[in-house]
Amino acid sequence: MTPARLTAQAPVMLASNLIESVEFWKARCGFTANLWGDPPDFAILRRDGMHLMLSQKPAGHEIIPNWHIKDKLWNAYFWVDDAKALHAEFVAAGAPIDYGPCVQDYGVLEFGIQDPDGRDIAFGQSLD
């Protein structure tokens, strides 16, 4: 019997304003989105076979980006085939670039952006 295979993954993050976050990912990063709820409180975003899920945060909940807890720790990481081209695309679309592109010690050409809730999201190209 052939073992089951994993076929995709999706970071799941809370959003302080779901609609604003969805528009950010669409306009600045080229994702498409489906929303659920009335009013919408959950979204699945897609680009190039990758997924990101967003859920409206509960009232009174504080979103704390990982880098506030541990220096330089992202909330999501996407592997890409051309970090320089994606970086240029994001810059042209007005995405808030956090750093890069730069070559990391772990053999990745990487850059990062910040989402509307201040989280660092990285995009890395393996140099192997």
From TrEMBL:
<dbReference type="Pfam" id="PF00903">
    <property type="entry name" value="Glyoxalase"/>
</dbReference>
<dbReference type="InterPro" id="IPR029068">
    <property type="entry name" value="Glyas_Bleomycin-R_OHBP_Dase"/>
</dbReference>
<feature type="domain" description="VOC">
    <location>
        <begin position="5"/>
        <end position="126"/>
    </location>
</feature>
<dbReference type="InterPro" id="IPR037523">
    <property type="entry name" value="VOC_core"/>
</dbReference>
<dbReference type="InterPro" id="IPR004360">
    <property type="entry name" value="Glyas_Fos-R_dOase_dom"/>
</dbReference>
<protein>
    <submittedName>
        <fullName>Bleomycin resistance protein</fullName>
    </submittedName>
</protein>
